[in-house]
UniProtKB/TrEMBL annotation:
<feature type="compositionally biased region" description="Low complexity">
    <location>
        <begin position="40"/>
        <end position="52"/>
    </location>
</feature>
<feature type="region of interest" description="Disordered">
    <location>
        <begin position="40"/>
        <end position="64"/>
    </location>
</feature>
<dbReference type="Pfam" id="PF16118">
    <property type="entry name" value="DUF4834"/>
</dbReference>
<feature type="compositionally biased region" description="Basic and acidic residues">
    <location>
        <begin position="53"/>
        <end position="64"/>
    </location>
</feature>
<protein>
    <recommendedName>
        <fullName>DUF4834 family protein</fullName>
    </recommendedName>
</protein>
<keyword id="KW-1133">Transmembrane helix</keyword>
<feature type="transmembrane region" description="Helical">
    <location>
        <begin position="6"/>
        <end position="25"/>
    </location>
</feature>
<keyword id="KW-0472">Membrane</keyword>
<keyword id="KW-0812">Transmembrane</keyword>
<dbReference type="InterPro" id="IPR032272">
    <property type="entry name" value="DUF4834"/>
</dbReference>
Amino acid sequence: MILIRFLIISICVFYIIRSLARIFLPMLFQSMVNKAQQQYSQQQNPFQQQRQNRPEGKIKIDHAPQVKSQIPDNEGDFVDFEEVK
């Protein structure tokens, strides 16, 4: 008798949790997606404002990287290239 009662209660609890999950999980995921979209738009907002303030055809370079080769120019092999037809 105790086993049957335990099984009935556990099945009822399982169905209750399952039905509540169907209701609340989509709302939870939607709120997470909305929060991620807001964070993304806040990160992209300064870049969009910079684009809008600049007149068309004007280019502004904020930083030009200085590239230094790790291999000196006097080292290395030169390989001739021949086009094969």
